Amino acid sequence: MKNKILLMGGIGAGKTTLKQRLLNESLVYLKTQSLDYSSIFIDCPGEYLEIPRYYHVLIDASFGAVEVWALHDATRRNCPFPPKFATAFRRPVIGVVTKVDHCDACPDIAENNLRKAGIVGQIYHVSAKTGDGIQELALHMSSLTSQSE
Ligand SMILES: Nc1nc2c(ncn2[C@@H]2O[C@H](COP(=O)(O)OP(=O)(O)OP(=O)(O)O)[C@@H](O)[C@H]2O)c(=O)[nH]1
Ligand SMILES: [Mg+2]
């Protein structure tokens, strides 16, 4: 499958859990240690975003993807993305605010941070735990992965 989706976000943003939810897998915590191409998603460790010397790994990986999903944990107040980071990618970048179910969630701050990161397209608000917003994102995922290559 060539129509992959790159998941990028800070450490613990919920990339792997969201992937499991969208693929109807059981939600099992597993720290991502390296780039994982084993599904329609390219999953990566949050360190690749949090440590600037790894930015190039994300940019390189995006060439194997049809779209980049920038995840921002709704419980996180500081922005893990550098300003206008989305403009470094030659693929469309959309935003996903994760963990909206959490009692400390502040989705507005997360959305604002994603806009500062240069995301102009749609921003989805989801909870992999409760399933909030997942159906809409799953529909979007299907539209991408069913495109002819
Ligand atoms: N409340 C809540 N917790 C979540 C949700 N999604 C993920 N988590 C929790 O957040 C933690 C990190 O989730 P991961 O999916 O491993 O995060 P990640 O972005 O893959 O992290 P790295 O692989 O370290 O980069 C886990 O303890 C998850 O259970 C959610 O929708 N709601
Ligand atoms: Mg992970």
What does this protein structure show overall?
The chain is an alpha/beta fold and 149 residues long. It has a single domain, classed as 3-Layer(aba) Sandwich (Rossmann fold), CATH 3.40.50. The chain is 28% helix and 17% strand. The protein has helices at 15-22, 47-50, 55-62, 107-116, 134-145; strands at 4-9, 41-42, 65-73, 93-98, 123-125. A five-stranded parallel beta sheet has the order 2-1-3-4-5, sandwiched between helices. The longest helix has 12 residues, at 134-145. The model has no long low-confidence stretch (mean pLDDT 96). It binds guanosine-5'-triphosphate and magnesium ion (MG). The site of guanosine-5'-triphosphate has 20 residues, from helix 1. Pfam families: PduV-EutP. Keywords: Nucleotide-binding. Belongs to the EutP/PduV family. GO terms for molecular function: ATP binding.
